[in-house]
Amino acid sequence: MKKTFLFVALAIFSLVGKVHADEGMWLPMFVERLNYVDMQKMGLQLTPEELYSINNSSLKDAIVGLSEGATPRGFFCTGEIVSQNSLMFTNHHCGYGSIQKLSTVEHDYLTDGFWAKDFSEELPAEGISASFLVRMEDVTEQVLSVVNDTMTWAERNAAIAAKSKELELAASEDGKYNPIVSAFFEGNEYYMFVYRVYTDVRLVGTPPSSIGKFGGDTDNWMWPRHTGDFSIFRVYADAEGNPAPYSPDNKPLTPKHHLPVSLDGIQQDDFTMIWGFPGSTERYLTSYGIDYNVESFYPTIHDIFKLQTDVMDEFMQKDASVNIMYADDKAGLANTWKNFEGQMLMLRKNKVAETKAELENQFTEWLNANPAKAEEYGDVLNTLAESYELVHQITPSIYYPNYLAMTGAIGISGEFAAYAATDKKDKEAVAAAEEALKAIDVDAFFAETYKPLEDKMLVEMLKLYYNTFDAEANPNFYNLVEKNYKGDVVALANDILENSIFATPESIKAFIEKPNAKKVAKDPAYVVMNTMITHLVTNLAPYRATMQTISENNHLFVKGLREFYAATQPEKDLYPDANSSLRMSYGSVQDYQPADAIHYDYICTANGILEKYVPGDYEFDVPQRLLDLIEARDFGQYADENGELVVCFLSTNDITGGNSGSPIMNGKGELIGLAFDGNWEAMSGDINFEPKLQRTINVDARYVLFVIDKFAGATNLIEELTIVKTPKCCKEGTHTCCEKTAETVTEE
């Protein structure tokens, strides 16, 4: 079979010294003004118009934001179009929820993988929509025209929200587009993003989790990494190419642009760029905000999610059906708690609060030298310090009762609060409340749940709460346990599981048939729920008020900080925090040294899979087919120049959550891998970029193709791609094929 390779001659640029990491997640519409010259010097070979264009096909048209609904907000991941039939690559963990929903014990795609041999075998993927950016525009002037200095912060936000809705409605063109107005620089600038959202997305291929999640939670955020973190979907449209709900009559969307996939591989210092939809960073967070995160917010969420993950894991390893049922939930919780654990550690180790404090000192000195600016911004840091100290004290009293109030029978009992509170003398009201009970979908509360797991979760969450708060923090709950259960919180949990109306669907349904308000009021689950709500409500108002003060003063601080930089470092270009809008980052392939006498190479190979392999282990088991291929060194055209199969590689690109699945490309805009993680030593990077330490972990495109081709035998997908490779003669610069014009070289 003949393979056709398309190539373009490499441009040569003179670089002085070693290329370093380039911090920043940049808006593509500003690429020509802010970044183009730097990117060109580092190895970019595309024009600004080829990168971002409104009127013509450009690289942006191949980048896809992935969300759960038809509204392009809160992209959880990024995908990229890699064929003329809208085949889309993203990470395995990005498609995980959809793969889970499609899986059964009989067809366990999480465990076994899935590969469609033609369009007819592709499966509708619930929970994924694909958003393509049409254009972005600066609407700061229009949005801020409706605010003034006399407004309260709440009034200001309401006016901005109303104006944003007005602009979005006008840009939608009667529903043709999905516009979103987003705030930047803490509400000091506003941009509108106009999308087309396609909801008919179908699963095409996924490796088994033993490849797609190889290393599991143990390897998460770690290097070296040997995870084949990819899955494959396809975007469908109606006959005219417009977004449409799922229909067997829909056809694969013809994209404006798709990415070629390169087999050239990577070398140290190679230029790289990543495009995607990073979710959230806090690069302008103050030292006070960092202290709050490290001392209060992160530990609170970490402890809750770690406990919940451990409980799930205990049962998931014992039962395949339970594993499928909870796989997506567990993955999300585990990723969060380990992320927060890493941030707590690395924010301290990398002394990020100290770095921010030094900047704040410089800012204060500048204010002191400028009386007008001191009057405008002089109180902002003191106000933030006081506010964060207050919210630090309140935070545990918000999150612990909130999560416990959503747990098992305690959570379900909340649905009966309105009935329990009804005035029993008001016969009409009682009758209406009893009728309302019949509308409760009891089965929905218990759907996709495993009772032994849920029971254990309730016990452990009650223990965590009881051991965290004393009588002063929540006297109602404390007294309940001490007086009614002699200080034994497990006895309380058992009382709920054995005697509560809300412990089983059968007992709830029986109660609805013969409701009794007194029974609800005395029910142990309901009593606990009431103490949680009381605890939460007591602290909610001051918490919300303080967070509003923090938001207002963060807005003011960033406004002042931008003026400070403009006055003291006018050459410095500032980029906005990530907010799920399309961004590009650029850097290079690099190794790193995380500590004394420790050096990490920029690639890892399939040899590491064999080294980590543990038969039967739920994180480090490997399919026999993959073992056989690696041991036989049967890598085909996907091997590097040394005959090795590169699995993952490192780059200096600036990314965060939401960039998962983003394409990492070379200077010609060809796909060389998929970004899927950051490294442990730079877990503080969302708040402060660490150029010497911060690395993006990418699965190599050649390993992706190897798994598709050699492991799965899905040659139909390989044939659909535009695979590019620079012939050896061209790399050596000795062949006439290496002229400036693109040519096609056919090799047997």
For the biggest sheet, the summary is: 11 strands, antiparallel
Count of distinct strands: 24
User: According to CATH, what is the topology of the largest domain?
Assistant: Thrombin, subunit H
The structural domain count equals 2
Gross morphology: globular
The level-1 CATH class of the largest domain: Mainly Beta
* Measured distance between first and last alpha carbons: 7 Å
For the residues shown, what is the average pLDDT? 93
Low-confidence stretches: 1-21, 739-748
Query: How much strand content do the residues show?
Result: 15-25%
- Main structural class: alpha+beta
Write a concise synopsis of the structure shown:
The chain is of the alpha+beta class.
Features:
single chain; 748 residues; alpha+beta; Thrombin, subunit H; 2 domains; 11-stranded antiparallel beta sheet; 7-stranded antiparallel beta sheet; 30 helices; 44% helix; 16% strand; globular; disordered N terminus; disordered C terminus
Ordered list of secondary-structure elements with their pairings:
Layout: E1 3-7, H1 31-34, H2 36-42, H3 48-51, E2 63-67, E3 77-81, E4 87-90, H4 92-102, H5 109-112, E5 114-115, E6 123-124, E7 129-138, H6 140-144, H7 153-171, E8 178-184, E9 189-198, E10 201-206, H8 209-212, H9 216-219, E11 231-237, E12 251-252, E13 261-262, E14 271-276, H10 287-316, H11 320-349, H12 352-368, H13 371-377, H14 380-394, H15 396-404, H16 408-413, H17 417-420, H18 427-437, H19 442-446, H20 451-468, H21 475-485, H22 489-499, H23 505-513, H24 517-522, H25 524-568, E15 583-588, E16 592-595, E17 598-600, E18 603-605, H26 607-612, H27 624-631, E19 646-651, E20 663-665, E21 671-678, E22 696-700, H28 701-711, H29 715-720, E23 723-724, H30 728-731, E24 743-747
Parallel strand pairs: 13-23
Antiparallel strand pairs: 1-24, 2-3, 2-7, 3-4, 4-11, 5-10, 6-10, 7-9, 8-9, 10-11, 11-12, 14-15, 14-20, 16-17, 18-19, 19-22, 20-21, 21-22
Helix pairs in contact: 4-11, 10-11, 10-12, 10-14, 10-15, 10-20, 12-13, 14-25, 15-25, 20-22
